[in-house]
Amino acid sequence: MKFGILVNEGPYNHQATDSAYQFAKAAIEKGHQVPRVFFYHDGVYNSTRLTEPPQDDRHIVNRWSKLAEEHKVDLVVCVAAGLRRGIKDEVLAPGFRISGLGQLVEAGIQYDRLVTFGD
Amino acid sequence: MSDVTGGIDMDDETEGVVKKFMFLNRKAPYGTIYALEALEVVLISAAFDQDVSLAFVDDGVYQIVKGQHTKGIDQKNFSPTYRALEGYDIEKLYVEKESLEARGLTEEDLLVDVQVVDSAAMANLMAEQDVVISF
Amino acid sequence: MLHIVNKSPLERNAVDSCLRLATKGSAVLLIEDAVYAATKGTAASAKVQAAMANLKIYALAPDMEARGVAGRVMEGVNLVDYSGFVDLVAEHKNCQSWL
């Protein structure tokens, strides 16, 4: 089955992004596909490579990048929400790309399920 | 790439597929950005020829009350956009009766034509969707 | 339909709204702060217990364990891990998050 995921909150502030990641990881381990994760609202902050958490904490941004690299997950950051918050191409971590909200609607149309994580 | 479709080219995989999309609004405007950014997704969805509906539940009903004046807080008043949805062929706007009543509001307090439905009807509408996106 | 809730019933109305708008036979999965709704002895326990007559209630075990409430789970609540979360989404035709 193909799962699209929508993440609406930033990293560290809200558990939504952790839950989304755990869900994506579990889905892939079970043989499902997660073709795309769409980052909206403050969720766009998941994409910045400037993120430097303390050594003993999880690295949420790198975790997404690794998932993208290993399982071909398309990490899409909303352009409008990103521009509002200073997220541009030059700060993106590997695996992320900036595009329009159409990518979210398209995920809803093409995939079997769309699961939202937010506040 | 097309601006109208939010950065995607319509391809074979989306063409001809019509799903029931519901955008569920449960948050008041201005205090947080969710209502405004939800509206932005709704407008984009119009370009995809899907069966789109909007639901206003809980504090989401405050998004469409008349008389919003935002000058004093220096934010954009986006409430007129709800009236423009009809021009995008988005005409299914549902409001939960119980949510209106709990806030001392009636249909006359709303700035756009809606269908007021009770909880049971709203529950059925939600259950029959293919995709529910909530903000 | 699968309803996913992530808010404490003692702080926000998401659990109430979900229980009001979930059709009979639906499933409700409590995650993050909503796992407090799966515990016994709270001011919200009675309504969640009552809702079990019409709905299947699930709670995410890792979120209960993280919050120190795994030992307080209410009778009738089904515990799942993330793998079970994925199964629930796959098994139901559609899902909705009560943010």
Describe the structure.
The complex is a heterotrimer of chains A (119), B (135) and C (99). Chain A is α/β, with parallel strands linked by helices. Chain A is built from four helices and five strands, in the order E-H-E-H-E-H-E-H-E. Chain A has a five-stranded parallel sheet, with helices on both faces. Chain A is globular, with a radius of gyration of 13 Å. The two termini of chain A are 26 Å apart. The mean pLDDT of chain A is 98. By secondary structure, chain B is of the alpha/beta class. Chain B has one domain: 3-Layer(aba) Sandwich (Hypothetical Protein Ychn, Chain: A). Chain B has four helices and five strands; from the N terminus they run βαβαβαβαβ. Chain B is globular and about 45 Å long. The model of chain B has no long low-confidence stretch (mean pLDDT 93). With 99 residues, chain C is α/β, with parallel strands linked by helices. Chain C has four helices and five strands. Chain C has a five-stranded parallel sheet with strand order 4-3-2-1-5. The model of chain C has no long low-confidence stretch (mean pLDDT 98). The interface between A and B is medium-sized, with 21 and 26 residues.
CATH topology of chain A: Hypothetical Protein Ychn, Chain: A
The CATH homologous superfamily of chain B is termed DsrEFH-like
SSE sequence of chain A, one letter per element: EHEHEHEHE
**Averaging pLDDT over every residue of chain B, what do you get?**
93
Low-confidence spans of chain B: pLDDT under 50, at least 5 residues? none
CATH architecture annotation name of chain B: 3-Layer(aba) Sandwich
Structural category of chain A is alpha/beta
Could you state the CATH homologous superfamily of chain A?
A: DsrEFH-like
> For the record, what CATH class of chain A applies?
Alpha Beta
How much helix, percentage-wise, in residues of chain A? 25-40%
The helix content of chain B is: 10-25%
Count of beta strands of chain B:
5
Number of strands of chain A: 5
- Major beta sheet of chain A, specifics? 5 strands, parallel
Task: Provide the succession of SSEs of chain B.
Answer: EHEHEHEHE
Number of domains of chain A: 1
